[in-house]
Amino acid sequence: MAKEPKGAAERDGRTPLMAGNWKMNLNHLEAIALTQKLAFSLDDPDFEAVEVALLVPFTDIRSVQTLVDADKMRFSYGSQDISAHDAGAYTGEVSGVMLAKLGCTYAIVGHSERRQYHGEDEAVVNAKVKAAFRHGLRPILCVGEGLDVRQAGEHVGHTLAQLDGALDGVPEKNAADLVVAYEPVWAIGTGEVATPEDAQEVCGAIRGRLGELYSKELAENVRVLYGGSVKGDNVAAIMAQPDVDGALVGGASLQADEFVKIVRYSKA
Ligand SMILES: O=C[C@H](O)COP(=O)(O)O
């Protein structure tokens, strides 16, 4: 018998995570304005139902930290990248030591834009995952296939190979704090959202592989997100899938009203 789709409350105890990846948008003053607008728009019941994370440019993190601390805002926040190194002669890089000091909970690792524009391969992604864990940060590990791989029908194998590579040598006690984001590259910023069934197929396979790599218990607790053209009007159908625990949201996270709709997906 087919597995019934579950709502947030029945998601095997995994709190849904809606994470806004602002990418290279918003200076620190604009970041303050958007953070305040979101805080004003969201209420305690929203934060009780869903974890809301802001993944902001490095130059915005201190401003977000100051607001969150001063006004006791209920956002988690973090970076969009992390250096594989902890300190030293690595011009332009930002270490996990620095991010932890800024109160970050999360660091995105292996986003397809880093893989594509900065040549990050599996070894680099693996080193960055380990760097995050060394400093108590939770990596949001991005995996997903390009259009050619999807058209060849190899999307599941490709994505699981990325997962295997990123987690090579990562012990279970760390992997328990992982978040995985399945982002088909062909759906990022294109308006071409994967169908809920497409998202479920790969998110379910990711959870299955986590069970093989670690344990069933770990796999049932790790959150697997979908990312790629998520908007207020398509998020509910994606979230109805049993193995999708949230969304990594790009463009729509820059508009307060749209991101609030995404956070409130269960009330649509
Ligand atoms: O990290 C977020 C993803 O790249 C999705 O971006 P998008 O929502 O603009 O398609």
UniProtKB/TrEMBL annotation:
It holds the Pfam family TIM. It is found in: Cytoplasm. The active site is at residues 111, 183. Homodimer. It is an enzyme of class 5 (isomerase). It comes from the Bacteria. InterPro entries: Aldolase_TIM, TIM_sf, TrioseP_Isoase_bac/euk, Triosephosphate_isomerase, Triosephosphate_isomerase_AS. The lineage of its organism: Bacteria, Bacillati, Actinomycetota, Actinomycetes, Sporichthyales. This is Triosephosphate isomerase. Belongs to the triosephosphate isomerase family.
